[in-house]
Predict the 3D structure of the following.
Amino acid sequence: MSERVPAIKVLLLPKDTNPMGTIFGGVILSHIDLASAVEARKCGAHRYLTRAMREVEFHEPVFLGDVVNFFTETVRIGKTSVVVRVSVEAERWGAGHGERVKVTEAEVVLVAVDEDGQPVPIRSDSH
Ligand SMILES: CC(C)(COP(=O)(O)OP(=O)(O)OC[C@H]1O[C@@H](n2cnc3c(N)ncnc32)[C@H](O)[C@@H]1OP(=O)(O)O)[C@@H](O)C(=O)NCCC(=O)NCCS
């Protein structure tokens, strides 16, 4: 079986931590947003705006030094929107080194837009 390739893989640093020393949730949300845009580009070379992000629950914390993988999958291609599922997995550093844990997953709705920020068809044959 071929290995899954993440859309984004990041090593998290001290600048990404909250006062408890674990990774700030907003950092993960930001990378979910970016990973979904990487996936959406496979549907067509447009500018994409994030319209919605659904059901983000954090199951496990992310620690300093963890390598975090953002796996993506296109769930639906509409006329102007793409729905992308992003699964986030952390590879532990330090104690438990190498262990992989599921951190969260989210569905992101992106809309293709023109230069004026107005929705445009993703596929040229859409009508
Ligand atoms: C993205 C934006 C241009 C869309 O404009 P809009 O007038 O809402 O467009 P529409 O209502 O025609 O919806 C466009 C598409 O998104 C889908 N959509 C809109 N809201 C949705 C939601 N909450 N869930 C799922 N799909 C949604 C519509 O079904 C439609 O899909 P389709 O064309 O594939 O059928 C506009 O909402 C916007 O500029 N939002 C701000 C985006 C932004 O700045 N994001 C970054 C935040 S910092």
Observations:
- Residues 49-52, 78-81, 109, 111, 113, 117, 119 surround coenzyme A (CB under 6 Å).
- DSSP finds one helix and five strands in the chain.
